[in-house]
Amino acid sequence: MTSQHDTRKRWRPRFSVKTLAIVVTLVCCYAACWGPTKLQGVGDVGRRAGRELGFAVEAETAEADYWVSQLFDASPTMPLVVDLTNPGYRRRDYYFWFFGYVVKLPFEREISVSRHF
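Above: the chain's sequence. Below: its structure in token form.
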């Protein structure tokens, strides 16, 4: 008969309640950024991409947002990350958005254009 000391114990991570509360709070804050990313982030990223191409879309108006949405197809991929499809370049660029601060991420993806006749 083997004793309890002879069998090898599996290692399990241990967390304090304080650490667990901090991690859960940070995950919830990150998930709560989904709404502002959809509402404001898409417009901010579109305006930045328009400025990069030389369009004057500085104003934050509904008309400027409409024209930016006609030029680019921007959609939130996850909280704080917006992907922007530029049909002219046939690629998808990714941007990090943090409440007005926009940075282009070094990731991009070629998009395939399928034609249906």
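The radius of gyration is 22 Å.
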